[in-house]
Amino acid sequence: MAVAIDTPLRQVFDYRAPAGTAAGPGYRVWVPFGRRRVVGVVVEGRDDTEVPSEKLRAAFEVIDDEPTFSAELLALLTWAAEYYRHPVGEVLSSAMPVHLRNGAPLRQETILWRLTDQGREQALATLPARSVRLRAIAEYLLNHAQAPASEILSATESPLSALRNLETRGFVEQFAREAPETGPVSIVRAGPPLNEAQAAAVERITNTLGSFASHLLYGVTGSGKTEVYLHAIAAVLARGHQALVLVPEISLTPQLIARFRGRFDAPLAVLHSGLNDTERMAAWRDAREGTARIVIGTRSAVFSPLPQPGLIIIDEEHDPSFKQQDGFRYSARDLALVRAQRLGIPVVLGSATPSLETLARARKQPETMSRLPERAGSAKPPKLFLVDLRKNAATQGIATPTVMAIRRHLDEGGQVMLFINRRGYAPVLFCPNCGWSAHCRRCDAHLTVHARGRDLICHHCGSQEPLIAGCPNCFADVKPVGQGTERIEETLENLFTGAPLARIDRDSMRRKGELEATLERVNRGEIRILVGTQMLTKGHDFPKVTLVVVLNADQGLFSTDFRAPERLAQTIVQVAGRAGRAERPGEVLIQTEYPDHPLLTLLLTGGYAAFADGALTEREQSHWPPFARIALLRAEATDQQAPLQFLHSARALADDYPVRGVRLLGPAPSPMERRAGRFRAQLLLHAPTHSPLQRFMSGWLTAVAMLPEARKVRWSIDVDAAELS
DNA sequence: AGCACGCCGACT
DNA sequence: GTCGGCGTGCTC
């Protein structure tokens, strides 16, 4: 049998079945591997092998009496390993909770304790009053009928010996919990009435239940996408099927979960990064056994086991967090589409700012696109204005017209939100005398001034240094240059004395619950001015905000990354969507030095749709995705030359594997060559469609992996790379 | 990745 | 004389 093992080796290993047993695809097995004993997953049950019999070893044992992965999930995972050119053993391993990777049994019988008939009748009557613990346990079980030992012991503050004592007396007994009841009941509560567009979207989606269709739910913030999801899910539950909902990490909030729980009395499994291994195992098991009717989770939840799949939803489908940026570099959004297609179920992609890939797909099938134009509560969409930074004086990054607008909104009782995509006080510490600036020792990057000027922190490797007052070169006074959230906060405090202000970024919201608490204060109106990073754009609603300011729109306009303008437009529209939710129309100011930039013009005059049309035309003309396919071969090493040498050799090898249409660009050092002490370089593969690219990689990468230079670097391939850095 | 083997430097 | 540095090879 062929077994996938958690190792970077790009192959599977053949084993003889353990004596007297057989294991089909999807089963986990303990196998000898080198000198180790490891968990593997059977990917093919066949007995034939080309491995010489003296090398072939027998598996030790089959772990469970049922497969860990269904045929469907195993096929999806092996397909993904192939597509993303990642070792299949690592892919399968990453799709399992840690306990399963380490060989824990798939089903864990929960051992519960309960009173025996004798115990129920006699325990309290016969146990002496001084046996406080024993009596407490008996009493607890009279009230609770059954409970795990851990719960009983912690509730009664007793040692395990007390429970054992009662067992010896015949008062309590342990038993394994029966298999979960089949066919869990899903109760759906009525939601608010749908508007016309929402109802049409729900109908379009539910009409395709039972077959593959990809729906784009294109609705501005506040247009009620979640309500459409909830109605579609209700239809799925009614058919006895499960729904899988994928969301970006940051928007998986208690409020969202509460909204699902409020609507459905159906078991819900939540999968996110905050779970510990045991919780993750439990949620995974609930999904696999069908106990959970709705599975809601972040990126990796796309690999949830689902015995009765009915619908997949991807909320905020444009969000970059759906693409894993290290190791197994998959896109959960793309895999959700593949999975839905293989399963023959519909998938819903929801966004106010769909990715250009998704828009291009929707153009080909306009019938699958549902637009939700209306804003709930019929508030007017916000008006966008540009503030020309070349013509207007700025105080610490805030232009005079912006200051005036903020004052006006504050005077009128509105709330103001300022967005700047840069944490810290200032991005550069500079010596005006000699031109020196503070650089990270381990990265090709400036150190950011932090904590109102007490620390220097590298945003790329996290290293931290105390701030210096004098230039190490010429001893002149150094000064912070540029703006970060902290400095904007300081400037605003000075400009608008007395206006309560809050800053929301990764630094100010470190502690758990702090973000929720601050958002609560904002929505109660205790905060008048809000400064923050990307965090502000993700999922939260600010109904009282009437003015939104985008302080630095220009970073995205001239980037080397072809996706930068798309990201910028998405950010602007997402931030703008936070304004004017209530009766007041919102106003959005975008500060820029390039007010005539065509993409900004499109965004302002025609909104995201016009921008996307323009950007798609540009992509088509310059042959970038979605009008081409790319992959990036990356390499890094502590030695500066090694990555480039490896990539040059890799490129030279390409001549041996000619495939029409595949072009190689580079190698070149990465945009930030040195990061955390390692030098990085990359080689770009480009092809008109995926199939020649895939054909090329299948031969070429095997040879690349065998290059002697490959041993001197850490290399990886990134298929459909999202960031060219 | 792990893990072992193997051949050259500074020390219990 | 050993402990251990990381180069090289292998994992069915």
TrEMBL record:
Enzyme Commission number(s) of this protein: 5.6.2.4
Protein origin, superkingdom: Bacteria
Species whose genome carries this gene: Steroidobacter gossypii
HAMAP family: PriA
Pfam families: DEAD, Helicase_C, PriA_3primeBD, PriA_C, Zn_ribbon_PriA
Protein name (database record): Replication restart protein PriA
Protein family according to the UniProt entry: Belongs to the helicase family. PriA subfamily.
Every Helicase C-terminal domain range: 455-622
Subunit structure: Component of the replication restart primosome.
Cofactor note as given: Binds 2 zinc ions per subunit.
Ranges for domain Helicase ATP-binding: 206-372
Lineage: Bacteria, Pseudomonadati, Pseudomonadota, Gammaproteobacteria, Steroidobacterales
Reaction(s) this enzyme catalyzes, per UniProt: ATP + H2O = ADP + phosphate + H(+); Couples ATP hydrolysis with the unwinding of duplex DNA by translocating in the 3'-5' direction
Residues reported to bind Zn(2+) 2: 440, 443, 458, 461
Cofactor(s) this protein requires: Zn(2+)
Enzyme's top EC category: isomerase
Sites where the protein binds Zn(2+) 1: 431, 434, 471, 474
Biological role stated in the UniProt entry: Initiates the restart of stalled replication forks, which reloads the replicative helicase on sites other than the origin of replication. Recognizes and binds to abandoned replication forks and remodels them to uncover a helicase loading site. Promotes assembly of the primosome at these replication forks.
